[in-house]
Specification:
Elements lengths: L2 E3 L1 H5 L2 H14 L11 E5 L2 E10 L2 E9 L11 E9 L5 E6 H25 L5 E6 L3 H11 L4 E8 L11 E4 L4 H8 L2 E4 L18 E4 L12 H6 L1 E4 L2 H7 L1 H8 L9 E2 L3 H4 L9 E4 L4 H16 L7
Parallel strand pairs: 1-6, 7-8, 7-10, 8-9, 10-11, 11-14, 12-13, 12-14
Antiparallel strand pairs: 2-3, 3-4, 4-5, 5-6
Amino acid sequence: MTVTLDAADVFALGPAGAVAAVREALAGGLDPDGDVPRAVVPLAHGQGLLMPSESGGWFGVKVATVAPGNAARGLRRINATYLLHDSATLTPVALLDGVALTTLRTPAVSVAAGLDRLRALAAGGGGLRLVVFGAGPQGEGHVAAVRAHVPVADVTVVTRSAGPVPGWADRRLAAADGEVAASVRRADVVVTATSAREPVLDGRLVRDGAVVLAVGSHEPDARELDSALMGRATVVVESRATALREAGDVVMAIHEGSLDPDDLVTLADPTGWRGDVPADRPLVVKTCGMGWQDLVVAVAAHRRKEGPPAERS
C-alpha cells in the first residue's frame, strides 16, 4: 500500500534527522557524481523539473515546478511532489509532500557539508553569529538546521526592503542599509538563499574562517556570490559535474579566472570537507539540489513514520 506523508510528516524528521541521513548516505559510499542529472523542462510560465535517483534499495522521483510569476499571485514559487518506490519490486510505497521535502533536505545538505567547520567555530563558545540573505523558507530552514547542531547567538536577516522581523531572526535589515556590511564582517556564518541573479554581498567582507552556505539557483548564469569570495575560499560542491553545469557562482568564477575547477571539493571526498579544509580561508558550500538528496531524506522520513517492518500495521 502506498502511504502518504504530508508536510507535517516530512518535517517531523527534523533538521538533525535530515542532516544525519545525508551524512550517513555519503559515509556509506553514495557518490553524487553517479546520480542521474535532473531534467529541466521549459514551460510557458516557468520550469518543470524531473529529479530521479536510485540508491540503497530505493528509487524515487521528484516532480517540481518553478513559477517566478507566482509571487505576484500570492502563490508558492516552487511546488513539488515526491514518489518513493521499493527498488526490488519497483512498487510505489510512499507519496511525499515535495515542497516540505525540498525545504528540509536543502539546508540538510549545506549543514552536512559544513558541520565540522561549524562545530569548530562553536567550540570558541558564545554561539555563532549568522547573517541570512533571504527571508523565505530556505533562509528559515538553514537557521533551523544550524541551530539543531551548534549554539546560535544572533541572526540577522537581509532582504531587498525593510519589513517585519521573522520569528527566527533577531533583526531585519534592508540590503541598502549600511549596517549590512558590518554584520557580514562579524558573521561566523553567511547564508544566501535568494532568487538573485547578481551577487548579494561583497565577498571581500567575509572573514577568514567563516562558513558561507549558498543556495540560490540551479542556473549557470545566475549567482549570489562574487568571484572575490570564490577565489579566496575553499569551495565545496555536491558534484563537480553538477556544479560545472548548473552552479552560476562556480561557472562564472571559473570564467573570470578566479577559481580553478580542479580545486573544487566534492561531497564524494569526505577527507576534503570533513577536516582537511584550511581553517584560515572561508568555506563556501554551494549547492544546486540533486535527486539523491531528496531520496535519502525521503527514505528517512518514511522510515520514521512507518517504523521498523515488525512495528508496521
